């Protein structure tokens, strides 16, 4: 028996490495922090669980950790970036979206629905797990759960706080919402509240069909929520039939479509 096989597995992640000696796990990337007895995990090591024991959201780094995905029971991978290589075709079932600019939501959702029917756990990823892949997951929640865009975004953002949708991708989601539910009429947005430090805080919870819409801030320097107007009574802010809010004029070029 080799020396590595004689070692006791780590009590935190279950993999074989010298955790107490500060050795970084070669599979999940966590280690004992200096001067602490609590485990430290690499932020990018674990994908975010969006729907229990079924739908996971992450980055290309997550998708490259085959052994970690297997420990989580993931057997299928939805790759939302055509340029990303599918690394382990002998170990996972892959489906890759081929569109660069326009996200093919229906194609992605068809694959995810098949995974759900087969009771297979699936990882949806892009390069950073912040833009393209969250948009696909949000579209899936709208289609499969009947949740509106704001509710679906809120659900995903709560489970993966690093999500930062670009203006272009959010506009695609708005169009997809109208495709599913029809024109948006008289929707009252929920304005985010701000703490004394200036950081926005949201109230998260299990979304209901008639909940008001929460609108994200886009990932561009200086961009704010398109509904962030001070001292505006929420019940007096409505949209006419068939109208949707115009997105802000962002500084600089659009954020890259791969979510990075």
UniProtKB/TrEMBL annotation:
The Tyrosine-protein phosphatase domain, residue ranges: 46-182
Matches recorded under CDD domains: DSP_plant_IBR5-like
Sample GO molecular function, one term: MAP kinase phosphatase activity
One of the GO biological process terms: auxin-activated signaling pathway
Domain Tyrosine specific protein phosphatases: 103-171
Alphabetical list of InterPro entries matching this protein: Dual-sp_phosphatase_cat-dom, IBR5-like, Prot-tyrosine_phosphatase-like, Tyr_Pase_AS, Tyr_Pase_dom, TYR_PHOSPHATASE_DUAL_dom
Span list, region Disordered: 236-260
Polar residues compositional bias, start-end: 241-252
Pfam family, one: DSPc
Protein name: Protein-tyrosine-phosphatase IBR5
Lineage, opening ranks: Eukaryota, Viridiplantae, Streptophyta, Embryophyta, Tracheophyta
């Amino acid at each position: 028996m080799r020396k590595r096989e004689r070692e006791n597995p780590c009590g935190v992640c279950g993999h074989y490495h010298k955790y107490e000696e500060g050795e970084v796990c070669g599979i999940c990337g966590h280690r004992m922090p200096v001067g602490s007895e609590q485990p430290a995990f690499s932020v990018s090591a674990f994908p975010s669980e969006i729907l229990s024991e079924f739908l996971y959201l992450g980055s290309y780094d997550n998708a490259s950790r085959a052994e970690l995905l297997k420990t989580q029971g993931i057997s299928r991978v939805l790759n939302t970036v055509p340029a990303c290589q599918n690394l382990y075709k002998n170990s996972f079932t892959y489906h890759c979206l081929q569109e660069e600019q326009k996200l093919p939501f229906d194609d992605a959702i068809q694959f995810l629905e098949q995974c759900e029917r087969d009771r297979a756990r699936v990882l949806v990823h892009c390069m950073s797990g912040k833009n393209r892949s969250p948009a696909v997951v949000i579209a899936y929640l709208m289609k499969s759960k009947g949740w509106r865009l704001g509710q679906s975004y809120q659900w995903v953002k709560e489970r993966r706080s690093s999500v930062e949708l670009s203006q272009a991708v959010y506009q695609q989601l708005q169009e997809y919402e109208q495709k599913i539910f029809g024109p948006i009429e008289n929707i009252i947005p929920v304005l985010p509240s701000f703490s004394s430090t200036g950081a926005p805080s949201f109230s998260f919870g299990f979304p209901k069909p008639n909940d008001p819409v929460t609108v994200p801030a886009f990932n561009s320097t200086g961009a704010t929520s398109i509904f962030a107007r001070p001292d505006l009574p929420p019940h007096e802010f409505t949209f006419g039939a068939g109208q949707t809010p115009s997105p802000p004029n962002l500084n600089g070029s659009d954020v890259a479509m791969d979510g990075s």
